[in-house]
Design brief:
It is a single chain. The chain is an alpha+beta fold. The chain has helices spanning about 10-20, 50-65, 70-75, 180-200, 205-220, and strands at about 5, 25-30, 40, 45, 75-80, 85, 90-95, 100-105, 110, 115-120, 125, 130-135, 140, 150-155, 155-160, 165, 170-175. Strands 1, 2, 4, 5, 6, 10, 14 and 17 form an eight-stranded antiparallel sheet that branches. A five-stranded antiparallel sheet has the order 3-7-15-12-13, with no helix packed on it. A two-stranded antiparallel sheet has the order 8-9. Helix 4 runs antiparallel to helix 5 (about 205-220). The longest helix has 21 residues, at about 180-200. It is globular, with a radius of gyration of 18 Å. The two termini are about 20 Å apart.
Length: about 220
């Protein structure tokens, strides 16, 4: 499942974050790269353990916890602390697949089921810089408004195209889901979405309660805790 989650951050939050990102000290983006990625990655990142990265990362995590659409789609068990990158003119990240396992500051490791990008630049502020995801359904180009998020399976081949004008600021991170299978997560998300629509239209009548029970029983069957 590839899903656009709008307005994870408010316009004011985006503006505050952008001001801090524009004044930040950046390092080579390969500070967090694996061997394969290092050969095709040309961007800048905040040092992951810098005070600014930790502060903005917590702001992003708080916003995600308040996003029903994100929670329903990702069913998060654990989220890697958000990272922050910047692409200027001539910079890009060629096609790659994200590492299957990521380390946490605690020393634990998690499985990356879902990849996420949260945009801090509006599409008209830069040319190029599309997130391009290639999967069994084709090639998808993504360039979202600032404050919006895209999530997609971490197994996907993807790239960020070369910037030809302006600067693209974003946060990126990975989720280990309580439901490993993308297909199962998609079924649960669609079921949950339609339950909520029925509840809003008709209230908690018996069929909605029965569908809600069905949702939780599927979640119980497919979850890994």
């Amino acid at each position: 499942m590839m899903l656009h989650v709008p307005e994870v951050l408010s316009r004011k939050q985006v503006q505050d974050c952008r001001r801090q990102l524009q004044e930040a000290q950046w390092v080579d983006g390969n500070v967090t790269s694996g061997m394969q990625s290092a050969k095709s990655k040309f961007n800048r990142q905040l040092q992951p353990d810098s005070p600014l990265a930790l502060h903005l990362g917590q702001l992003v995590l708080n916003a995600l916890a308040c996003s029903p659409v994100f929670v329903s789609a990702a069913i998060p068990k654990c989220i890697v602390p958000p990272l922050f990158n910047s692409y200027g003119c001539g910079q890009y990240f060629d096609f790659h697949v994200d590492n299957a396992i990521r380390g946490l500051p605690s020393g634990e490791c998690i499985r990356t089921d879902v990849s996420c990008t949260l945009f801090f630049s509006d599409p008209e502020e830069y040319d190029g810089g599309e997130l391009v995801v290639s999967d069994t359904y084709g090639v998808h180009q993504v360039k979202l408004p600032a404050g919006d998020l895209i999530l997609y399976p971490a197994t996907s081949l993807h790239q960020v195209t070369q910037i030809t004008r302006g600067t693209r600021y974003a946060s990126f991170f990975w989720v280990q889901s309580m439901v490993r299978s993308d297909w199962h997560r998609t079924l649960l998300f669609d079921l949950d979405k339609n339950i909520q629509l029925l509840r809003a239209r008709l209230g908690d009548f018996s069929e909605v309660i029965a569908l809600t029970s069905h949702y939780h029983n599927l979640l119980r069957l497919w979850s890994e805790l």
